[in-house]
Amino acid sequence: MPEHLSPTRHGARHGERPFAHVAGTGSMLRLALLNFLLNVLTLSLWRFWAKTRVRRLLWSGTAAWGDHAEYTGRGGELFLGFVVVMVSVFMPILVALTAAQMAVEAGNPWGNAFVLLIQAVAVFLAFAGLYRARRYQLSRTLWRGIRAGQDGEAWRYGLMVLGCGLVNVLSLGWTWPWTEMTLARYRLGNTRFGDERFVCTARARGLYRRFAVMWGVAALVLCLPLVTVLGLYLSGDGILESAEPALLFIIGLLLAGGVVLVLALPYAWYRAAVLRQLVAATRFAGTTFHLDARTAPLLRLGLGNWLIGVLSLGILRPWAALREFRFVCANLSADCEPDWSSVRQSAAAAPRLGEGLAAVFDGAGEF
Amino acid sequence: MTALPGRFNDGRTAASRQVTVTPGTNGLDIRGEDGLMVAFWKTADLRADGELPDGAGVRLRCAADPDARLSLAQAEFIRPLLPKPPRFPWLKLAGTFAGALGVLAALWLGIPAGARALAIMVPSAWEKGWGDTLADELERRWGTCRQPAGDAALQLLAARLGAGIAPDLHLNRLVVVRRTENNALALPGGSVLVFSGLLAQAESSDELAGVLAHEFTHLRLRHPTVAMIRAAGIGMAVMLVTGDASGLAASGAAMAMAGAYSRDDESAADAGAVTLLTQAGIGTQGLAAFFRRLDDGPPGLTGWLSTHPDSRARAQAVETQGGERQAPAATRPALEPEQWAAIKGICGQ
Ligand SMILES: [Zn+2]
């Protein structure tokens, strides 16, 4: 019996699919192109307001149990947060890094240690910033007039990411599923809607079979080109030195594209398990959720979004975000409806300024 | 007027209830399914910024009860009652644009001055360190030409030119490298690399003296260091405005703007070269001749984007300045014929 027809796994138990996304692709494409035009006119300063408009469309198109979500953030908040962080954090780091690099080039023995230290501080700040950005986004997310929110400390999350990164390097990546789930537990476990917290008990157990396959493929795929290049270099024929730089660049680009394509399948296979496990272990007000994330649709979504981003030079990334929202809305189900009358508006204070750090180290995408 | 079905949230809990909404002259009458009044929202208090995408309806707010929401799927009867949604902020956009241009203009004027001020603060040991790293790398990649007689002649010429500016000039390496281009290079911390192509094409020792005087002036004014700091400053400024931490936009802009700034440096170095040559008693016609020979491309094309000013204009400027300050009788050739021959042959045949 094909998997999608099996009633026990996807039928009766997870029958309720309360989420839907109604925003059309046309509206999003129009908005993305308008934003691109205005970004060009304002030397990219429009991007804060652009991001806000994209989010408003993404959020308001998301319906849950018949009511639409709402994004109340403002472009001015993002802009102000960006300026504050630029002046107080980013510029000092950049100046320090430049000075440290100049010291390295001048042969100062302490130079490399300084560069490493500054880079570690930058990674810490980047992820602490992402956590703060998430807090900001959630505090501007409303549904039925009730605000969402996030507790927890940004600096603690930044240190956790730094520690996890260190552990992953030392273990050659083998702790990745464990660190991934640990960080996700912290994020989700500190997420609130109204005064009610999400509960997340996700573990890495059960992920290691898929992870091992992904690790093996990645090691093979990444090692082969490296070994080839190294062999050519050591053989001393001077092939690499004498080759046209443009030709080498094109070959490198093709190789990178090939690596992405080959790695995409095992990565999607692993990612599907992570997402299913994460959602299944997350509860809200007694309701459990189920994400019907499967490898093939996930692969289509990921490769499609990658192509959209690359081919449009990032201009149509809002469309990629819309596809992600649609995917989640179409595949997320709940075992019952929470008792909404017991979920109350929270009095917790919301951050005043925008995303700052995350807008500087912008890795969070278009939404 | 007809009663419309809607969904009402009171903003205190996340519960949602079905209501019927009757638009009246003073506002919206909102009643539960049991017919009891839930709320009355006055027309003046209504806020309409909740138009749902692709005709999914409208979500209303009320100034008197800011957390409450009222959603209506059929909004045709309600829309006429609502205040106009906020217009697109064209004025704000124009303001941002003007502000961005102002910031750019300030940076354009401020970066060269700032780079000069910073260059003075750079420890000379650092400067020498960068220059040595760069020069070692270039020498390794291109290969050098060394012959005792030629080197001695080069040092002699350098000493004669540098006599006028000794305290400022920290020339610690003067090397001929194997490059076919007709060019020479000044690096931070007092290194000058002369390309073998320049020696091959030069018709007199005065030409070489002119080019060296030009490069020594770059060193005296610390142009290589200033240019490095300037490029870093431009990159930083572009990153500040665009927020692009990948450095892609930054390096592109730095390259485009470096050209415009370096043309000022070149003019200053040409003027300084005339002074050095005059002090050393060497004619400036050699430098002018060098520039005239550079000028074989179509005029005007090099113009604004190029890193160097138009060669014909440079030759003319050197001739004018030289003519004002030198009497032809007071000059003698930069090198004796056999010294010049030693330098010409430094790379072998
Ligand atoms: Zn020059």
TrEMBL record, chain B:
Keyword check for Protease: yes
Peptidase M48 domain sequence ranges: 169-319
A GO term from the CC aspect: membrane
Cofactor note: Binds 1 zinc ion per subunit.
Keyword Protease among record annotations: yes
Stored InterPro entries: Mito/Outer_Membr_Metalloprot, Peptidase_M48
Descriptive protein name: M48 family metallopeptidase
Organism: Magnetospirillum aberrantis SpK
